Amino acid sequence: MKAVVLEAPGQALLTSIPEARIGSEDEILLQVRKIGLCGTDLNSYRGRNPLVSFPRVPGHEIAATVAELNPKHPEWQPGMQVTLSPYKNCGECAACRRNRPNACQFNQTLGVQRDGALTELIAVPANKLFLSNLSLKEMCLVEPLTVGFHATARGRVTASDTVAVFGCGGVGLGVIAAAAFKGATVIGVDLDDAKLATARKAGAAHAINSATEDLHERLEQITDARGPDVVIEAIGSRQTFRAAVDEVAFAGRVVYIGYAKEEVAFDTKLFVQKEVDILGSRNALPEDFLSVIHMLEAHRFPVDDAVTHMVPMEEAPRILEAWNHEPTRFGKIMIDVS
Ligand SMILES: NC(=O)c1ccc[n+]([C@@H]2O[C@H](COP(=O)([O-])OP(=O)(O)OC[C@H]3O[C@@H](n4cnc5c(N)ncnc54)[C@H](O)[C@@H]3O)[C@@H](O)[C@H]2O)c1
Ligand SMILES: [Zn+2]
Ligand SMILES: [Zn+2]
After folding, report:
1. pTM of the model
2. 237 in ligand 1 pocket by Cβ < 6 Å?
3. Low-confidence residues of the chain, pLDDT below 70?
4. Could you check whether the bond before residue 55 is cis, i.e. omega within 30 degrees of 0?
5. Over the stretch 85-104, which tens digit does the pLDDT of each residue have?
6. Sign of CA dihedral 183, 198, 238, 260
7. Distance from the CA of 289 to the center of ligand 3, in angstroms?
8. What's the confidence (pLDDT) of residue 271?
9. How far from 179 is each of 105, 158, 163, 189, 278, CA to CA, in Å?
10. Counting runs of H as helices and runs of E as strands, what totals does the chain give?
């Protein structure tokens, strides 16, 4: 069957690999229909993801249909439209024992530590599947949006909160949509006006371009000088990691999603003075998948603005190269597999 394989840093190839088949009686064979790409895939392509070894089939944002009946699982009928959780947790580590498998110490994600779904058929455990009548394009957006939903759960976001979201890229947009869906007043922050326009469509009541506006002043204006109740960082830069603690309200919450690529120094006095809750947020739980499906079914996300490129599988190597060259020109890229 056809597959896109990352052969080496900067080298993606459309090639053929052995056909997938069910490995255990708990698995369902799926026909892959669409695959979304995100920053993780770009990093893998560049050879900068330490968790990825070559060759590797990428693909963890998946819309598929059931290809074949597994008689042990008659609930999954051929043709049913699904998306799935690409994570596999160990069941033994401290996070797993606390029922937080999203933060598993030994997590394995499809397309990262093991081969992913940018191919024609995959076999996955039945308990990872989610069913919906959303379009395939919407189904393919579920996984990337779950990361944002999970972050709002970590930040205990409610309708009475003002939530500032730093970064309106793929991950930040999911945060904005989730917080707005929960009724919060959302402030999107980015350097790029096009990203901010999409952020507004995803539910941000306010948009701040921190390249051209004074972030602190604008946040004070919007929050009557109290600062946002919750700041969610979805960039991973030194400045925004620090700004989150500087700008959050006293007794507020800071949630970090971004992976900072360098060490960050803090004036830790603020942690104490503000009695701030500082939370990490990683991946997502099954309930986040259900919440996102619910949100998409309510048409509360600007799908057509977020997905900027849809190309056939043959074009995947070329678009990876173009994306690598000029990352800011692309929103969500989707590959039409079949
Ligand atoms: N915790 C998790 O589970 C998880 C999952 C996926 C991604 N991530 C991390 O989340 C972060 C965001 O990922 P993404 O895919 O959305 O990236 P992205 O590149 O699509 O989006 C980043 C956005 O931040 C904006 N930006 C950059 N620097 C800025 C600054 N100084 N001030 C304001 N805006 C700025 C960019 O214009 C862009 O819109 C990355 O660090 C990624 O590694 C974490
Ligand atoms: Zn992704
Ligand atoms: Zn574990």
Report:
1. 0.95
2. yes
3. none
4. yes
5. 999 999 999 999 999 999 99
6. positive
7. 19
8. 98
9. 27, 8, 7, 14, 18
10. 11, 17
- Give the helix ranges, DSSP H, for the chain: 39-46, 94-97, 136-154, 170-181, 193-201, 215-222, 238-247, 269-273, 286-297, 303-306, 316-325
Structure tokens at 244: 């989150």
Rounded CA separation 309/316 (Å): 11
Question: Which of 41, 166, 171 has most ligand 1 atoms within 8 Å of its beta carbon, as the pocket-test mutant?
Answer: 171
Those residues whose C-beta lies under 8 Å from the C-beta of residue 338, and which sit 6 or more positions away, are 31, 32, 33, 120, 313
Instruction: Please tell me the residue having the least CA distance from ligand 1 atom 43.
Output: 259
Q: CA nearest 100: which of 286, 232, 237?
A: 286
Q: What is the pLDDT of residue 261?
A: 87
Per-residue pLDDT tens for 279-313? 999 999 999 999 999 999 999 999 999 999 999 99
- Please write down the HEC assignment for all residues of 125-156: EHHHEEECCCCHHHHHHHHHHHHHHHHHHHCC
Distance 68 CA to ligand 1 centre (A): 38
Q: State residue 298's pLDDT score.
A: 95
Q: Are 51 and 96 in contact (CB under 8 A)?
A: no
Q: Which residues contact 243 (CB under 8 A, 6 or more apart)?
A: 166, 215, 231
